[in-house]
Design goal:
The complex is a heterodimer. By secondary structure, chain A is an all-beta fold. Chain A is built from no helices and eleven strands. In chain A, the strands form two sheets. In chain A, strands 2, 4, 5, 6, 9, 10 and 11 form a seven-stranded mixed sheet that branches. A four-stranded antiparallel sheet of chain A has the order 1-3-8-7, with no helix packed on it. Chain A is globular. Chain B is mostly beta strands. Chain B is globular. The chains are: A mainly beta, B mainly beta.
């Protein structure tokens, strides 16, 4: 089975611009979660989508948004970029919610490294 | 909101020494997971614990879930250089609730 893929892998933007990141989950996984990883802050949860619906949301400003398509692929968008948005953005897919009570293993993609200048 | 804490953030050990790290949640958890991230890599799932007092072993790694389901530990016996990386715990409060990650502990092993 192919793993989680994320595109692009690297991105350089300037302050004020917007960016869209893409994530393709493992086939059959309907849950996709997004995390922001910065040095010293660990993985901060952005949001989770399940069957095209946002099921959980973290504590990020409204500039961060996402969506999920019928084929479970997901995108996240960051508008009006700030320097502090520079980070590794990780997407993870799982069977979470399909196999209730089972192991909710998150399968992470390689991430998109976003640099804001 | 739910907080998951891992302290300290860095630990250095001599190869062959044992290593233990702890994870504490501000609220009772339905389950806790552990992940390992190698330098330059992405987090990889290690284990999920669900039951109060549960203990699971994977070769030299031993994971435990506290009786009150608010804390967990990871113990590595006789560390090896292949154990280097950042270990994250992640807790889930209830069914379908979000997974909250700790900040992780970065382990370095001196050969």
């Amino acid at each position: 089975k192919a793993g989680v893929t994320q595109t692009p892998r690297y991105l350089i933007k300037t302050r004020g611009q917007q960016v869209t990141l893409s994530c393709s989950p493992i086939s059959g996984h309907r849950s996709v979660s997004w995390y922001q990883q910065t040095p010293g802050q660990g993985l901060q949860f952005l949001f989770e989508y399940f069957s095209e619906t946002q099921r959980n949301k973290g504590n990020f400003p409204g500039r961060f948004s996402g969506r999920q398509f019928s084929n479970s692929r997901s995108e996240m968008n960051v508008s009006t970029l700030e320097l502090g948005d520079s980070a590794l953005y990780l997407c993870a897919s799982s069977l979470w919610g399909i196999l209730a009570g089972e192991v909710n293993e998150q399968f992470f993609g390689p991430g998109t490294r976003l640099t804001v200048l | 909101g739910q907080q998951v804490m891992q302290i300290p953030q860095y630990q250095h050990v001599q190869e062959g020494e044992d290593f233990t790290t702890y994870c504490n949640s501000s609220t009772t958890l339905s389950n806790i997971q552990w992940y390992k991230q190698r330098p330059g890599g992405h987090p990889v799932f290690l284990i999920q614990l669900v039951k109060s007092g549960e203990v699971k072993k994977q070769k030299r790694l031993t994971f435990q879930f506290g009786e009150a389901k608010k804390n967990s530990s990871l113990h590595i016996t006789a560390t090896q250089t292949t154990d280097v990386g950042t270990y994250f715990c992640a807790g889930q409060g209830g069914a379908n609730s979000k997974l909250t990650f700790g900040k992780g502990i970065t382990l370095s092993v001196r050969p």
